[in-house]
Design goal:
heterodimer, A: 350 residues, Rossmann fold, seven-stranded mixed β-sheet, five-stranded mixed β-sheet, 12 helices, 15 strands, globular, B: 251 residues, alpha/beta, binds thiamine diphosphate, binds iron/sulfur cluster
Chain lengths: 350, 251
């Protein structure tokens, strides 16, 4: 089946059993809401346009708190508005799926594809001690599998999961197979606030803990869960990293362009490779660290000003030089530009 | 013989409210209505950020605590996925009419079948007595120490009047809990609001003129007097919208 990235997000959500979408229009992800507006009523679901991204994320909070799968989607400026709600969702240990089809920023920025919300997504989207899972698809097919995974991971770990895409991937038309996702066993939502039917104690979904000791304990318990996620849920992909001297580290749409550059470099006899984190949190630290034993240099390629560079340096303990090439403001780097950077680094290697 | 007992729909957790605070009375009225309708098992309450935030511990039904101002949006998410459950929010004036104004207006525009219990005490209780959107002109608060002036801080907002202009609002009434007669009437209004929800007629909201003796700097008794003498003039009691009546008249 040939489908557009943005529509695949919606279709994969429906196939994951999600029946509730709450959003607010913003380029470049509006087709997703439009797709769901058509499709949801046909499967007995609801696609509701909220009055703002703030309201949308809180509708998602309510829906998830009552035990249903709900998700929201936006692009960069709208995701900033959702940050309060996401922090509450984390504090309430609720599952939730959020999509960010990134565009250039800061401010109103532009409407062209970008990856400049990397730090926001992986480090500090909302207030408080927290993490959440961030998935970065590079192919339309990967959107389909990761979107399904997102709902499962959210339920299993009671955490928000963000699908971090970009405008280019959202617009891309590619073949997709929705059956490719693996099946997982899901826990029962015994905590859901959906009416106790006089059969159990009342459930309270809450993020307030006035006693610092109790708050500390809930945060610690949550971080135990984060450890488990870091152990079990890291995803990444590699291309010709085995014998690489120069290893590109890149994710999402940019990794695809980098792959073309790697192939071109190989044709020129330069031993280049590509390491592609698929989970941006948890970050594939161990795998990158192992690579640092083999490669001579790292090259981070992103559509921003180098937001992932520090993660690579930390993962590799700065044992190898980490250089950066990127374009920002909504400009997609070309394979030639990346190749030129590889050649420059290769020249300096001897 | 038991003449006066705790409603079943309240838990055994002791209220933390100040002496003379009317939050407790309103909790009781909501719980009595839930008991009388026999709907505790099907009800989900949304606690807001304000002095009543701990209402999630006091109401025996399932409860969700919403971010400041967002209770109506959270309620929307619950109600849309559980249309046969009863969903109510319990919100203060800062929560509902300042930071959450957009969320409040839009449950009205969409005609969400939820019930909003709105506590108007003209002040921010929880944070220690700052000006609220409902603070009266001339009223002294910690952030309007020279009295609220319309030229500087603007005018106090009349919420039920505003919401009753929206087609999706089915029922809007302002009540007070300053005397037995008004308390009885307040309970009737809350009951009616839940009935409106049951019949899926749209948004139902009950604004309750309440006291905050602590931050008004008055004794509980004087606070009740202050409510009567100052609040009722700007916020007249009464039914502002009732689609059940219109429906009956059209028959
Ligand atoms: C985003 C955000 N801003 C500010 C606050 C601080 N805050 C807590 S309660 C409150 C006002 C509560 O007043 P009201 O809604 O009138 O309820 P009351 O306490 O009077 O019952 C404020 C401003 C907060 N918790 N969150
Ligand atoms: S501060 Fe005011 S509103 Fe809050 S509990 Fe005390 S009297 Fe009630």
């Amino acid at each position: 089946m040939l489908m557009k990235g943005n529509e695949v997000i919606g279709e994969a959500a429906i196939r994951a059993g999600c029946r509730y979408f709450f959003g607010y229009p913003i380029t470049p992800q509006t087709e997703l809401a439009e797709y769901l507006a058509k499709k949801m009523p046909k499967v007995g679901g609801l696609c509701l346009q909220a009055e703002s991204e703030v309201a949308a994320i809180n509708m998602v909070l309510g829906c998830n708190a009552s035990g249903e799968r709900a998700f929201t989607s936006s692009s960069s400026p709208g995701v900033s508005l959702k940050s309060e709600g996401i922090s509450y969702i984390i504090g309430s240990d609720l599952p939730c799926v959020i999509v960010n089809v990134q565009r250039g920023g800061p401010g109103l920025g532009g409407i062209q594809p970008a990856q400049s919300d990397y730090l926001q997504a992986t480090k500090a989207l909302g207030h408080g001690d927290q993490h959440f899972i961030v998935l970065a698809p590079a192919y339309v097919q990967e959107i389909a599998t990761l979107m399904g995974e997102a709902f499962d991971l959210a339920d299993i770990y009671r955490t928000p999961v963000m699908l971090l895409a970009d405008g280019a991937l959202g617009q891309m038309m590619e073949p997709v197979d929705f059956e490719a996702k693996k099946q997982r066993t899901l826990p029962e939502k015994t905590w859901a606030a959906c009416g106790h039917g006089n059969k159990r104690e009342h459930n309270v979904v809450n993020s307030l803990y006035i006693s610092p000791e109790v708050l500390e304990q809930t945060v610690l318990a949550r971080f135990e869960r984060y450890k488990l996620i870091e152990e079990k849920e890291v995803m990444y992909d590699g291309y010709m990293t085995e014998d690489a001297d120069i290893c590109i580290v890149s994710y999402g749409i940019t990794a695809r362009i980098a792959k073309t550059a790697v192939k071109a470099a190989r044709e020129k006899g330069i031993k280049a490779g590509l390491f592609r984190p698929i989970t941006l949190w948890p970050y594939p630290k161990k795998q990158l660290s192992a690579l640092a034993d083999k490669v001579k240099k790292f090259l981070v390629v992103e559509m921003n000003m180098g937001q992932m560079v520090d993660d690579v340096k930390v993962a590799t303990d700065c044992r190898r030089p980490v250089e950066f090439f990127g374009r920002t403001g909504g400009i997609i780097p070309t394979p030639d530009e990346i190749l030129a950077k590889i050649e420059e680094m290769n020249g300096g290697a001897d | 013989m038991v003449v006066f007992d705790k409603p079943k729909a309240l838990t055994n957790a002791p209220f933390h409210y100040c002496p003379g605070c009317t939050h407790g009375i309103v909790h009781r009225l909501v719980a009595e209505v839930i008991d009388e309708m026999g709907i505790e098992g099907e009800t989900v309450g949304i606690a807001s950020v304000g002095c009543s935030v701990f209402s999630y511990d006091y109401f025996g039904c399932d409860m969700i605590q919403a971010p400041h101002g967002r209770a109506p949006a959270v309620a929307t998410g619950v109600k849309r996925s559980h249309p046969d459950n009863f969903v109510f929010t319990y919100q203060g004036d800062g929560d509902l009419a300042a930071i959450g104004t957009a969320e409040t207006v839009h449950v009205g525009t969409r005609g969400e079948n939820i019930t909003v219990i709105f506590i108007n005490n003209t002040i921010y209780g929880m944070t220690g007595g700052q000006m609220a959107p409902t603070t009266l002109l001339g009223q002294v608060t910690t952030t309007s120490p020279y009295g609220r002036k319309k030229e500087i801080q603007g005018n106090p907002i009349r919420v039920v009047e505003m919401l009753s202009t929206l087609d999706g609002t089915a029922y809007a009434e302002r009540v007070a809990v300053d005397c037995v007669k008004n308390v009885i009437n307040a309970k009737k209004a809350i009951r009616k609001a839940f009935e409106v929800q049951k019949n899926k007629l749209g948004l139902s909201i009950v604004e309750v003129l309440s006291t905050c003796p602590t931050n008004w700097g008055l004794s509980p008794e004087k606070a009740i007097e202050w409510l009567r003498e100052n609040m009722m003039e700007h916020y007249p009691l009464g039914v502002y919208k009732d689609l059940t009546k219109e429906a009956a008249e059209n028959e």
